[in-house]
Design goal:
Layout (H helix, E strand, L loop, with lengths): L1 H18 L4 E7 L3 E3 L4 E9 L8 E2 L7 E16 L2 E14 L3 E5 L3 E6 L8 E6 L3 E6 L15 E8 L6 E2 L3 E11 L17 E12 L7 E12 L3 E5 L3 E6 L4 E6 L3 E6 L6 H11 L15 E2 L2 E2 H37 L2 H10 L6 H12 L8 H7 L3 H17 L5 H27 L12
Parallel strand pairs: 2-10, 12-19
Antiparallel strand pairs: 1-3, 3-6, 4-8, 5-6, 7-10, 8-9, 11-13, 13-15, 14-15, 16-19, 17-18, 20-21
Helix pairs in contact: 4-5, 7-8
Length: about 450
């Protein structure tokens, strides 16, 4: 009956623990697993709970080698059905722009959600690890014959001149500003337009500026490039045409756009001495092209930067060291307590209670305990019980001796059992009397301290 009650209580506790668990987890989705270099893909994280959220999500930034990442970390709420069960969910996503072909793994990130367990109203913080997913970055298709590989949903190219082109003469300087607006890509990927030299004009490329024009849903970019032309010969000429070519991943087709064709007439100018001065001035204004080292991000170990991994490793080693030292100290303390217990009166009295009733095992255990009893007592238990007028125990001992020596019986169960019971009672009286005598030495003016 008692076992059944204990089993019932354990089952109730187990059921309550299951009910009180936080039912919260995360799902990771990629909108595509195979892309070309520069082709973006979307990584969506959905954090689901069987109850509700009481605080915003906390999550790490996504770290992927050989890729640019745009976070869209504004979480969107919603209700989701998973295996027939309703969950409240929060979604956020990243757009990943890989720029180098190969096989990669999307690393797991840590998410902290604040949500109450099922059947409870008090929220708890839960650490959730997302699952890693693999993806492939394909090389540039062989059908592409252009100079610069560029992936975008759409691109528009515009050209503006700083002066009218219908009244030009030798020595005039005209400036061209070309802007490329691209959708669905980063400004870093927009290729720089080539500036070929001309035999009738000096060509001086200017600065190229990039602008990030992303919106709430997609990445967009703009590139603005300036070129200065110094007209050096008279005659009829055609200004260079600039062309942008891109690959649209939505329909896997190539597109091309270019600036309008511009024909000009350059009239003669008798003051040709100004050309030398203008050339020197334009050369001095040329931007210095420095070598720019591309930052590919830190080396990753298990999806996290190496310096964080090293820091976490050192912290883990320190924690493990502390835990091991604490466990060693606890082990030493327990071993010391165990060794003390092996020589204690309590241990030897337990051996006496479990000892055989046969002679001389019972007497050997009895005197082994008697020698370790920490009270004022006589050398033998027979003398001690006589001094204390414990006639019942004296009779039990005499009866036990008689049963052993008279008949040679290996052990009288009745006599031995009764002897153990009386010794147990006698031990309790001795210990209580010893404690009372110890308390008699406390001064009368000392009172027991109470909290």
């Amino acid at each position: 009956m008692v076992k059944r009650g204990i089993l019932l209580v354990l089952l109730m506790c187990f059921a309550f623990a299951i009910k009180a668990q936080v039912d919260c987890f995360a799902q990771t989705q990629l909108d595509r697993r195979s892309v070309y270099a520069q082709q973006p893909f979307k990584v969506t994280f959905t954090v689901l709970t069987a109850t509700w959220y009481t605080a915003p999500l906390e999550f790490d930034n996504l770290q992927i080698p050989n890729a640019f990442i745009l976070p869209f970390d504004r979480t969107m709420p919603g209700m989701f059905t998973i295996k027939g069960k309703q969950y409240a969910g929060l979604q956020f996503y990243f757009i990943v722009f890989p720029y180098k072909e190969g096989h990669y793994t999307l690393p797991a990130i840590n998410i902290v959600a604040t949500t109450p367990p099922v059947g409870d109203s008090k929220a708890k913080k839960v650490n959730i690890k997302t699952q890693p997913l693999s993806y492939i970055v394909k090389p540039v298709p062989k059908s592409f014959a252009g100079a610069n590989w560029f992936v975008a949903k759409d691109a528009v190219i515009n050209q503006i001149w700083d002066k009218p082109l219908n009244k030009l003469k030798v020595g005039d300087v005209i400036n061209s500003t070309i802007s490329i607006n691209a959708r669905g890509t980063l400004p870093q990927f927009i290729p720089e337009l080539p500036t070929d030299s001309l035999d009738w004009a000096g060509v001086y490329p200017g600065h190229t500026t990039l602008a990030d024009t992303r919106d709430d849903y997609d990445a967009n970019g703009r590139s603005t490039q300036t070129v200065t032309y110094l007209l050096e010969k008279e005659g009829n000429f055609t200004l260079p045409v600039s062309t942008i070519e891109w690959f649209n991943p939505n329909n896997s087709r190539f597109y091309k756009r270019h600036t309008p064709v511009r024909k000009i007439h350059v009239a003669a100018n008798p003051n040709l001495g100004i050309l030398t001065t203008l050339k020197d001035s334009l050369k001095a204004k040329q931007p210095v092209k420095a070598t720019i080292n591309t930052k590919h991000g830190p080396y990753l170990v298990f999806g996290i930067p190496w310096y964080y991994f090293a820091l976490y490793s050192v912290a883990a080693i320190c924690i493990i060291y502390v835990i091991v030292r604490v466990l060693i100290n606890i082990g030493k303390w327990l071993y010391g307590r165990y060794k003390s217990y092996l020589v204690s009166e309590q241990y030897w009295f337990g051996k006496f209670k479990r000892s055989s009733l046969a002679y001389p095992a019972l007497l050997k255990s009895l005197y082994a305990w008697w020698d370790r009893l920490p009270v004022q007592k006589a050398a033998s238990i027979q003398k001690d019980v006589h001094n204390r007028n414990e006639d019942e125990i004296g009779k039990q001992l005499a009866s036990y001796y008689k049963s052993q020596y008279a008949g040679g019986d290996p052990g009288n169960i009745d006599v031995g059992t009764e002897l153990k019971k009386n010794i147990k009672k006698y031990r309790g009286e001795l210990i209580n009397n010893n404690e009372l005598k110890a308390n008699e030495h406390v001064a009368i003016n000392q009172l027991e301290w109470k909290e």
